[in-house]
Specification:
With about 130 residues, this protein is mainly alpha-helical. Among the domains are: about 55 residues, no CATH class; about 35 residues. It is about 60% helix and about 0% strand. It has six helices and no strands. It is rod-shaped. It starts with a helix and ends in a 12-residue tail after the last helix.
Length: about 130
């Protein structure tokens, strides 16, 4: 008989703690102000926490307006985002390649001095025979 009493007391204590945490962390409450719910949970053994779970907790919003599955938690978990990044990168690569091809075809590559020509005559070795 003592074991049953200890078990029921432990269940009541766990229920009280869970109800109190739930009440204090809820965004909003139903039926009564939050302070009154805390008093009911603490002062009415067993029925106070049960009343909180049955009548005080806010109801979840209806599932009809919400999608069944939540979206990704971060952008790199979202396949649509990753696909858009890959498409954007491929577009940039194509533009860069097209620009290079236009530069080569228009002869702009010959207009730009090479690295050794940019340094000027001081960096060139003296001509032999002079």
């Amino acid at each position: 008989m003592v074991r049953l009493f200890v078990f029921l007391a432990a269940v009541q204590l766990v229920l009280l703690v869970l109800a109190l945490i739930s009440c204090l962390s809820a965004d909003r409450v139903r039926a009564m102000p939050r302070a009154l719910w805390v008093l009911v949970i603490l002062l009415v053994p067993l029925l106070g926490p049960l009343a909180w779970f049955l009548f005080g907790r806010p109801l979840p919003p209806p599932a009809e307006g919400r999608p069944a599955r939540r979206g990704p938690s971060s952008p790199d978990d979202d396949p649509d985002f990753l696909r858009s990044i890959q498409i954007e990168q491929a577009r940039r690569d194509r533009e860069l390649l097209d620009r290079w091809e236009r530069d080569i075809q228009s002869g702009d590559a010959d207009d730009h001095p090479r690295q050794d020509e940019e340094d000027g005559p001081a960096s060139r070795p003296p001509a032999s025979g002079a």
